Give the backbone structure.
Amino acid sequence: MAAMAKKADIGLFGLGVMGSNLALNIAENGFSIAVYNRELGRIDDFLRDSGPLAGRILPARSLEELVAAIEPPRAIILMIPAGKPVDMQIAALTPLLAQGDVIVDGGNSDFRDTVRRVESLKGTGVTLIGMGVSGGEEGARRGPSMMAGGDLQAFARIEPVVMKIAAKARDGEPCAAWLGPDGAGHFVKTIHNGIEYADMQMIAEIYGVLRDGAGLEPAQIAGHFARWNEGPLESYLVEITAKVLKAVDADTGKPMVDIIQDRAGQKGTGVWSAIEAQRLGRPASGIEAAVGARVLSSLKAERIEAAKLFGEPRGAGLAPEILDDLERALFAGKVVAYAQGFSVMQAASDAFGWNLPLPTIAKIWRAGCIIRSRFLGDIADAFAGDPVPNLLVAPAFATLMREAHPALRRVVAAASLAELPVPALSAALGYFDTYRQSRGTADLIQGQRDFFGAHGFERIDREGPHHGKWGIDEQPVTPGSTTY
Ligand code: 6PG
C-alpha cells in the first residue's frame, strides 16, 4: 500500500454507476482517490470489484474521513443525484473543508442551482465547480466529455485529473474544458442533453417511417442505420441505433425493440433546455418537439383510446422512393437541431456574460459524450471562422442545407400524407423555412395585437410607433360566427 502512504490526489462522493466508473477511470490514470458513499456496504463492493486498481483507492467511512484522506487544497467530486442531495452534501461538507478546497458537482444539475450555490459559498473559502459529465457508464469509465463552469483558479486544482481522464478526440485533444463562470458548465450540459433528445427523436422518427411506412423489420432497419453510420451521419447515436435494432430478446426470440414498451422516460434536462431556450428568446423547436414526443409517448392509455377513434397511422401510401431521402432528411434535421442548441448557448453567453467558447464546446463534444459525432468537428470549424448569428448561415453549413433541405421537405411531406408522425423533423423544417423567409407573416400578428390591445406596430415606410384605425365603420366580428 505504498501509494496510500501519502494522501489521495482527489476525492469522490457517490459510488453509483457514474461515480464508481469515474473513480476507476481516475485510478487507472494513475491518481490516488479517496471514495465515500452514504450506503457504506457499497464501498466494500466497489473495492472488491476494482481489482488491481484498489491499491490507488482509499475508502472513507464518513465525510470527515473523506476530507482527511485528501491532499489539500482538496478537490471532492460529488456524483450524486441532482437537486436537494447536492444542497445537503455541500452544506455538510463545507464546514469540514478549508480555504482553497474545491467541491465539484459532476451531476446533471440545473445551472440555476449551480449559480445559486456558487454565490452562497462566497466568503467560505470553498468554491464550487459545476461540471457536466457526459458519456454514460462507458464514458465515465473509458473517458467522458466534461463541461466545467465556475472559478477558473478552482478549476486549475482539478484540471490535471480532468484532462487526463477525459475522452480524446481523433486529433488527441482532451474532450474537457472550463467553459465559463458559475453555471456555464451545467448550462452547456443541459443544452447537450436537449440536443441529445432531438437527435434521438429524429432517429426514432426515421425508424417509424421505415417500420410503419416501408414495413421493414428491425434487423433490416438496423442495416440502414449501420450503412448511414459510414457517411455524414456517423455518430454514437446512429451506431447504437443499429445495434439496438439488431438485438434479439433471449426469452422470446423476438427483436428487442419489439418487446420494449413505447413509453420514454426522462429526468428533466430536456425540459430545462426547452424552457431556457424560450426564456432566452431562442426557440429550439426540434428540442421542444422531442421533449413533447417523450411526454406524449408516456400517455399510452390515452393514445390507445385515440387510436380507436381515429385509426392507427400505418403509413399507407408512402412513396417507396422516399427511402432514398431518409439519410439526407435526418442529416438536415440534425443540422437544424444543433443550430438551435448553439443559438441558445450564444444567447445564454450574452445574457449571463459567460463568453462561452462555441468552437471549444463543439470540440469537446467530438468524443466521449452521447452526441459525439464526426459532424461536431465541422461545427467547431464553422464557429472558429467569421462570426455567424446561426450555424445555418455558416458557409459550410449553408452549402450542406442547400443540398439536404429538399430531402427533409419530401420526407416530412410524405410522412404527413401517410399519417406518420414526424414532429421533430417537421419542427426543424418549419424553423428552417421561417428562419430563411425575409418577409414573414408577423405583420398580421402585429395587426391583430394592435387591433385588440393597441400594442402599436412599426411601419415599413416611416420611423416610430404607430396605431391602426381598424375598420371602425365595419360590422364587428361576433365570436362563434364562423363555421370552423
Ligand atoms: C449523458 C447523458 C446522461 C443521461 C441523462 C439524460 O450525457 O451522458 O445525457 O446525462 O442520459 O440522464 O437522460 P434522460 O433521457 O433520462 O433525461
Summary: The chain is about 50% helix and 10% strand. The longest strand covers residues 127-134. Residues 108, 134-136, 193, 196, 265-267, 269-270, 369-370 surround 6-phosphogluconic acid (CB under 6 Å). The mean pLDDT is 95.
